[in-house]
Amino acid sequence: xxxxxxxxxxxxxxxRGKGRTAPNPNVGCVLVxxxxxxxxxxxxxxxxxxxxxxxxxxxxxxxxxxxxxxxLEPCAHVSPRGPACSDLLVAAGxxxxxxxxxxxxxxxxxxxxxxxxxxxxxxxxxxxxxxARRSMAGFLTRxxxxxxxxxxxxxxxxxxRIALSTGESKWITGPQARAHAHLxxxxxxxxxxxxxxxxxxxxxxxxxLPGLADRAPRRILLxxxxxxxxxxxxxxxxxxIRHLAGIDTLMVEGGAKAATAFLRADMVDRLLLYRAxxxxxxxxxAVEAFGLAALSEAHDRWRLLDSRLxxxxxxxxxxxx
Amino acid sequence: xxxxxxxxxxxxxxxRGKGRTAPNPNVGCVLVxxxxxxxxxxxxxxxxxxxxxxxxxxxxxxxxxxxxxxxLEPCAHVSPRGPACSDLLVAAGxxxxxxxxxxxxxxxxxxxxxxxxxxxxxxxxxxxxxxARRSMAGFLTRxxxxxxxxxxxxxxxxxxRIALSTGESKWITGPQARAHAHLxxxxxxxxxxxxxxxxxxxxxxxxxLPGLADRAPRRILLxxxxxxxxxxxxxxxxxxIRHLAGIDTLMVEGGAKAATAFLRADMVDRLLLYRAxxxxxxxxxAVEAFGLAALSEAHDRWRLLDSRLxxxxxxxxxxxx
Lengths: 321, 321
What we know:
2 copies of one chain form a homodimer. Chain A has 2 domains: 3-140, Cytidine Deaminase, domain 2 (3-Layer(aba) Sandwich), CATH 3.40.140.10; 147-320, Dihydrofolate Reductase, subunit A (3-Layer(aba) Sandwich), CATH 3.40.430.10. Chain A is elongated. In chain A, the strands form 3 sheets. Chain A has an 8-stranded mixed β-sheet with strand order 10-9-8-11-6-12-15-14, sandwiched between helices. The first copy, chain A, has 10 helices and 15 strands. Chain A is an alpha/beta fold. Chain A is 27% helix and 25% strand. The interface between A and B is large, with 49 and 49 residues. Chains A, B: NADP(+) binds at residues 155, 169, 171, 197, 201, 255-261.
């Protein structure tokens, strides 16, 4: 029971690094002794210090005999940028390590756990693994599929439209939903829009939230032709997202053509839906045909993870099955 | 506090008459003495007996000194089909009457309350009035607007489609949502479909639920031309729903053309949305353009009343503001 509670704290800390640690995973760590937190850490912008190093630095001598809750197996490889976290945990005298996930990075992949066990530290793995996989989806997708984890964001009316036939799209959703969408931007390494959306809106794709203005993700334009605007990167084809080094989480923000291209390639891992309580009738649909031949192909693809109201708009998160 | 609890019971009983009492309102009544229910009634199929008469018959002598909770002002007019409920309540020796709504029917409209008060019965009105208005929306809309209360039912994908471009539409939603839609049919006096849906599906519009097979509503075909199929009624124009005697609640079930016509005329009072967790991309949109010139016209029309999951589909009820 308590283990899950502390791991939830570590997962919460891990969120702080989201969108700032690629190509490193955004890890969270909490050190607990006698039922109290003695150190907290999360992967710092750019990837260093690691979560464990930060938590141990905060705990100091209090780390001795503590339990470390980490969302990912502590690393076992020494790098020019810092020592291996498993060595740091041994040196600090930690008594027990509870990890959510084994690190699939071939440089670690079990050797972190082995080093801890050799030093007499009790090791457990797998607690809240599903949550941790979601937390580090960018890192894990890059390792497993050699491409970023892709989130498709759609802001629609009840009848699935993203603009009136006049092109008017500001605004479908209300201020709370739009603020939430800005927060989601801050959690991604990159944001992509298609050429039509770029030309129609020239979107800034910045993060208009107090204290998060510096968290604007990299801006990616999907366009086979045309110049690359200043402060933007351009890719000609969706397959090129593989080559976006340092972008492990990508949010596709618009428009229907880009959304459709990613769905057709089955490259959408997660859906964010913001749905306003309005009917539009005509206008631009959120998604165009992406190659379904039968309804049976449409079912059982998406699993609901979250659903709530943001003002009068419904926000839902789906994950690809 | 207790008054609201008993009125909620009366409103629950009122639901039993839905779809079977037009042109009479579906009223609920509960008689309470010393904190216990001594009689329960609801408007019977065809409109008689009234809820109060049924509850008083059940209570017998126990009605003396009781409080009657009724969702509508007891009627004051004697009809060949039965005595006035306000007279029955007086004769039974009821001590107090709590009503949710005054009856706007000009034959009553306060005279029921007056008759009770003249007999020394304490009368209160207005408790849970909003709920009662929803419960008797058919009766009240017929009186106020001289047409049935119209519910538009839509079963869509997340992107607002009701069929693939191949026409395949069975099924978008799952079995729990479809069973719920059958229950909603039983609560309506009539169901309407347009010509396209009729020709494509020849829908039965029956109620395929155990014990409710006899609750099939009247079937209305919206079609300017063509023969009227057996067991169907046909209207040429949506304005003709005014002339459907005995239909005070109408559910529009399909397809996009019919939905669009009712929305264009601003004749949709309530929306039932069943939304499956699937994306379809191409295919038939649920609603076509119905004349919005700007997004501002789309906002603040619909108020969310209910939202829940039916299996993996989201069910939502909206009411026209």
